[in-house]
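can u do me a favor
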């Protein structure tokens, strides 16, 4: 099947930023990947770009501590954000990350949409609901990947998807979701289609 839109295989690491001021100039189009530590952000980026080592994956949760920029095409970026949850870091540093993360989400003009990754076996923890609620209020397009879908049988995964859709209904039309498995590379076409809508609007 012929691919349309951007070719994510062209992705390459551009830069890391620890603060909003270190991010590339705010005149591009970008999509942020966010999720609890170990939800599979880096794995999703790697399978999308067909580059197994592009984004660092780790069995140690909370490894991504910076905003990592990957350039797909000129002025088109994917941004791997720090995972939230149980990263083993001092509370003071965790607070600093949260502050920068909030600033990024609220102030970054280039941000076209957010991909929230949620482990299908651990649906919508408090931290996920904070992002969902914020996106709903800010009218920021949000696409949720229910990751590690291969860990459930097909019927159970479908049932979880339907249950999640029902739970998200009150949050409005800016939120969509799908099943995803980096291990099986399933759901990649759906992710690619969503990213193309945001990053390649013409």
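np, heres the sequence
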């Amino acid at each position: 099947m012929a691919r349309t839109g951007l070719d994510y295989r062209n992705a390459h690491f551009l830069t890391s930023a620890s603060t909003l001021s270190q991010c590339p100039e705010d005149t591009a189009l970008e999509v942020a990947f966010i999720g609890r530590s170990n939800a599979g952000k880096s794995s999703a980026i790697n399978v999308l770009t067909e580059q197994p080592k592009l984004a660092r994956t780790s069995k140690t949760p909370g490894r991504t501590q910076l905003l990592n920029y990957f350039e797909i095409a000129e002025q088109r970026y994917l941004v791997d954000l720090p995972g939230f949850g149980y990263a083993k870091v001092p509370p003071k540093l965790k607070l600093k990350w949260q502050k920068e993360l909030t600033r990024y989400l609220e102030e970054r003009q280039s941000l076209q949409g957010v991909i929230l990754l949620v482990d299908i076996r651990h649906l919508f923890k408090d931290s996920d609901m904070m992002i969902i609620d914020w996106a709903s209020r800010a009218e920021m397009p949000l696409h949720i990947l229910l990751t590690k879908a291969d860990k459930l049988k097909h019927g159970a995964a479908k049932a979880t998807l339907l249950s999640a859709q029902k739970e998200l209904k009150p949050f409005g039309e800016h939120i969509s979701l799908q099943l995803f498995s980096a291990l099986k590379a399933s759901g990649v076409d759906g992710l690619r289609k969503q990213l193309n809508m945001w990053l390649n609007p013409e």
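Confidence is low (pLDDT under 50) at residues 58-63. hope that helps!!
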